[in-house]
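Running this now, will post back.
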Amino acid sequence: MFSQKLYKVGRIICIFILLMQESAIAQHACKKDFVVVADAHFGYIISQRQSIVHLIKGQIGGGELTYIFRTSGKRSWQTLHAYPEFGFSYMHLYLANPSQIGNLDALYPYMNLRLNKQKRNFKMYLRLGMGVAYLSKPFDPETNHKNNAIGSHINGYVNIRFSSSFKLGRSWRIDSGIGLTHASNGAVQTPNLGLNMATVNLGVGYVFGNKKLEMCKDSVLPKLSKRWHPSVLGIFGFKEMENPLGNKYMAYNLSANLYYSASYKTKFGTGLEFVYSNATRKNLEHDSISTERIRDVLKIGIKAGYAFHVDRISIPIDFGYYVYQNDNLKEKFFHRIGVRYMLTKHVIANVTLYTHWAKADYFEWGLGYEF
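Update: finished.
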């Protein structure tokens, strides 16, 4: 079965390569600059918990099609980050267990951050991507009760990859990499242990338009006019409890932050968080603990934060501690990772994952304001 799947993927990739070449001949006068890449992936599902070992039946494999936009230094942040690449990918993975977890199909944007110098035929990148994945065989209490890893068809998708490309002449390049992929729904629908996958990839790409990708030399970084960045964020999320197909409970978070720009790329900060969750209220009521007052459910936390910046995009990482919460609650530390985007000079869009150590609690959605 696995060899048949790989054979089909190989045929699709070969056909795709031929179509790329034909398209290039027809569009030799194209002025736009982009790259199209077809990759094959091979790897395995990581057994992060003993309870999901029964789902792992063998090696996984699949294919990926990617559209890449290359920056050329027209803006100062592109030069600062050594001309990063941005792209959009479609991934298909055969997970070697068609009856219990099925296949994975994902769509996600990503960015490639350069790890070596520009003027080389061999380029190295750190690739960071986040999007949405479709799992064909989620948990079902009647037909698929052994799938304790994935509770829904639609899931969040995160990919971190060390990748490289080797230039072959003016138009072709070889792409390769090794990476980690995570798929889960952030407890929107349980069970939600999630799937962690490690894969290696190898593929070919074709450059359309600007073959040499001449770099701009006239972009100049402006001075950092603002070092301190105070902001407030209003965030919400929702999750199920441990019992599958149960009720969903809302969670709310008000966050006050103060970041300091150490450079164009990095910020360090601290903050104060107020967290109110109906799931916490339900747990306390289940243990016959009073929740009549807001302070019985409210959590207050302090945190230290780091954020990596690429133009308007930032990747925040928070590590926090609850300084106030109900004495019956056991979780002391909280964490956060995700993406924020400056919609305007002051308005922030937020998509992050709120966790307690390695246990995902829920996805956070919200807006903020930077003063």
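Residues 2-208 form a domain with the Porin fold (CATH 2.40.160.20). More later if anyone needs it.
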